[in-house]
Amino acid sequence: MLIVQKYGGTSVGSLERIKAVAQRVAESVRAGAKVAVVVSAMSGETDRLIGLAGSLCKRPEEREMDLLLSSGERVSAALTALALKELGVKAMSFTGRQTGIRTDKAHTRAKIEKITATRVKKALDNDTVAVIAGFQGVTEDEDVTTLGRGGSDLTAVALAAALDADLCEIYTDVEGVYTTDPNIVPEARKMEKISYDEMLELASLGAKVLQTRSVEFAKKYGVPLVVKSSFNNAPGTYIVKEDKQMEKVVVSGVTYDKNQSKLTVLGVPDKPGIAGRLFSEIAGSGLVVDMIVQNISPDGKSTDISFTIPKTDSPRGLDLTKRFAAEFGAKGVDLKDDISKVSIVGVGMRTHSGVAAKMFETLAAHNINIMMIGTSEIKVSCVIESKYTELAVRVLHEAFGLENG
Ligand code: ADP
Ligand code: ASP
Ligand code: MG
Question: Residue 35 and which of 87, 213, 283, 311 are 20 to 30 A apart at CA?
Answer without folding.
Answer: 213
